[in-house]
Amino acid sequence: MSTSYTVCGICEQGCGLKVTTENRRVIKVEPDKDNPYSWQDFCIKAGKSHLALNHPKRITQPMKRVGDRYVATSYDEAVAAIAEGFNRIIDQHGANAVASYVGNPNGFNFGSALFHTMLLDAIGTESRYWVGSIDQNALHVVSDELYGNPWVSLQADIDHCDHFLLIGTNPQISTMCWIGYSPNGWKRVLARKAEGAEVVVVDPRRTESAAKASQHIQPLPESDWALLLAIIKVIVDKDLGRPRDQHLQGLERVLAIAASADLDDLAKRCDIPVEVIIQLAENFARAPRAMAVARTGVSVGRHGVLALWLTQVLNYLTDRVESEGGLYYVSGVLDLLAAGDTLFPHSEAKSRLRGNKNVAGAHSLAELADEITTPGEGQIRGLIINSGNPVVSGPEGHKLDAALADLDMLVVIDQFQRESHRHADWLIPGDHFLERDDINPLIQSLSPTPRAQQARAAVPLPETMRYEWEFLRDLTLAMDKPLLDGKKWLNPLVKASIWLARVTGKKQLALSPNLLSRLLIRSGGRFSWSEISRATHGLGKVDDRPQFGTLFEKLSQQGRKVALAPDSFVRHLQQTLDTPLAKNPEFPLQLISRRRLKMMNSWSVETSMTAMSEREKTGDRIEINTEDGQRFGLQEGQTVTVSSAVAELRAVVHLSDDIRPGVAVMEHGWGHRTFDPKTGQGSYNGGVNRNQLVSNRDLDPLSRVPRLNGTDIRVTPVTAASPSNPAELAAR
Ligand SMILES: Nc1nc2c(c(=O)[nH]1)N[C@H]1C(S)=C(S)[C@@H](COP(=O)(O)OP(=O)(O)OC[C@H]3O[C@@H](n4cnc5c(=O)[nH]c(N)nc54)[C@H](O)[C@@H]3O)O[C@H]1N2
Ligand SMILES: Nc1nc2c(c(=O)[nH]1)N[C@H]1C(S)=C(S)[C@@H](COP(=O)(O)OP(=O)(O)OC[C@H]3O[C@@H](n4cnc5c(=O)[nH]c(N)nc54)[C@H](O)[C@@H]3O)O[C@H]1N2
Ligand code: SF4
Ligand SMILES: [Mo]
């Protein structure tokens, strides 16, 4: 038996792990309690993560589609054929005809993410789609406008905060992470509460976190912008603000908007009484130290950008940024404010059909299906999906599924063949974080205090596999595209270095992710590579005190202030205010989502979901308020049809007083299959894919995120004509 220490690669929290192996198999994954930084959030998702390693359905060799079967091939054959196929598409239809969708786990796989981007740059395609457009795009849009850099995110000074306003986040289940993370964050919030701090949770559902809060506010979905503007208005009217205006630009404009807003109208829009709003505003403004934080729950709704923007306006107005117990910018292992533009070059690319500008370098997943199926110059004919399950996790998956079938070539890099991959022409094995030796300087830069830890492989890759980044590098070379920054003459040198590394057995001689991490970490100047290499349990102290003021200093070095009132936001706010509150009687409920501890979006099927009891497998459940149940004549346990403007499906009613009236809740990540490419057999994971109800046309106009939270729906008793989900799936 042997023990090694590494970093969890499942969510941003990046917990320290202790991994026990026997005969080159992982037998146990536990928290690494010697990790000075992060282990306390350790959860069952990591505890069962090793079950994927030797799973019989895992893809461990490149698989080629032959008719309706897959056959195993060599990497050389796969690389040559894919290169030839993509080059043919590019020759006929141009570079934009080869597209890419990158899912969430790729963010934790530095080598794969890096070489994937290098491949796209080498091809020169602007047809880039990624998970941000079904997750955090609202933050990127807000940061881009406020700070001139989409990657700036502020960290939380939890241990010194007296008042937490938490909007659209459920940290008891999800942990405190979202483009940044707070180790043991939720428990530290609760520890502050025990010491007298106020914790206010804003959520239409009485969540696990809301149940532990001091106060729970239940607004209508997608109305947080109205609640926030109302709070800001009260603060402005009562002169409770104390903005540091020397760092702010546009403050006057924001104050004028707040002064002219109509409190009663805003209160109606979020359905929170005016007296409650006044109290919320006074409590927030008068707290000695406070922070307002808005996350996924609002970002994946129609007014995500407005809500995230107004959250920051509230923070700046009450001096909660770069001050103790509030939010602050940290220059970690990398200084993202300084490095942002080099790492993520600005792109003005617009989508072909809808003409939308990209966000953080990528178009919205909501546009992908149409871009594949609509003929014309630039139509997408080839696609590479890396670490994503967009048919399940994104909007109107059934349409995307049909579009994927229409491609000339679909290449998938994943550990498993899931619903989004069933039309794949090529399946390329995905590596597992327990097999990786890497450090992710980008994710680690999003820490509240400087932190660095190298992940260390607990087990080697299966002999038949290469790392994802090696496949992507070889594909770029085989396509004869410039691997580095337009410098095609470097390709032979890279090829020579790969050869040299192979014959000498010295991996470090080849162009590798670790070489690039090393360069990045050196440029950040925070830790030395040898220090990091020696630190088995990682470097960094959670209780280091921040240097407040860094954000303002860095911005002023760039000749900037915080742009508090961007034109596009102000315009959209005005339009939203001018649009009267109206409910379509055809769809009287709004559907929101929930996560659970044993699931990671759609992909813990082979690992932590195996620890779910049959009773826990409620992926076809729709939760609605008890009074709404009576209003619509629905009983507990009744099977119903859930309809939206774009789809309908079956679900089972659960009546609950935890849900506010007018709202329904269904978990995402259910209702899909995992296939065994060796046999062609698919197994159904239970539940229904509630995201089919989400329109791919009804988006937040500023972030292009679809309404994964807030979808207008109707719930009616089933009739003979209603589709039955599993059967419907099997028939597809
Ligand atoms: N209704 C609703 N929908 C939502 C959300 C919501 O709150 N409500 N949340 C959204 C959010 S926040 C997110 S992040 C998205 C997620 O959306 P996606 O990232 O598109 O999809 P996932 O379901 O996370 O699937 C990830 C895929 O990556 C594979 N994978 C895991 N590890 C690796 C690896 O190391 N290498 C490779 N190559 N593949 C790997 C898994 O097998 C799986 O197939 O879903 C969004 N969808
Ligand atoms: N166990 C587990 N942990 C995870 C994940 C997982 O799938 N499972 N996913 C990881 C990922 S990829 C992410 S991005 C993070 C997300 O973590 P969080 O940002 O905490 O997001 P959620 O857990 O989706 O919680 C969002 C909350 O918003 C509420 N909500 C819905 N609509 C609205 C609205 O209009 N207004 C308000 N105020 N609230 C609303 C929902 O009821 C829900 O409780 O979690 C990460 N951690
Ligand atoms: S999945 Fe669990 S163990 Fe892994 S980083 Fe996230 S919270 Fe930590
Ligand atoms: Mo996410």
TrEMBL record:
SUPFAM superfamilies attached to this UniProt entry: ADC-like (SSF50692), Formate dehydrogenase/DMSO reductase, domains 1-3 (SSF53706)
Molecular function in Gene Ontology: iron-sulfur cluster binding; metal ion binding; molybdopterin cofactor binding; oxidoreductase activity
InterPro entries in the cross-refs: Asp_de-COase-like_dom_sf (IPR009010), MoPterin_dinucl-bd_dom (IPR006657), Mopterin_OxRdtase (IPR006656), Mopterin_OxRdtase_4Fe-4S_dom (IPR006963), Prok_Mopterin_Oxidored (IPR050612)
Superkingdom of the source species: Bacteria
Gene3D superfamilies referenced in this protein's UniProt entry, alphabetically: 2.40.40.20, 3.40.50.740, ADC-like domains, Dimethylsulfoxide Reductase, domain 2
Key words of the record: Iron, Iron-sulfur, Metal-binding
Domain 4Fe-4S Mo/W bis-MGD-type span(s) in chain numbering: 1-57
Family in the record: Belongs to the prokaryotic molybdopterin-containing oxidoreductase family.
Identification of the protein by name: Molybdopterin-dependent oxidoreductase
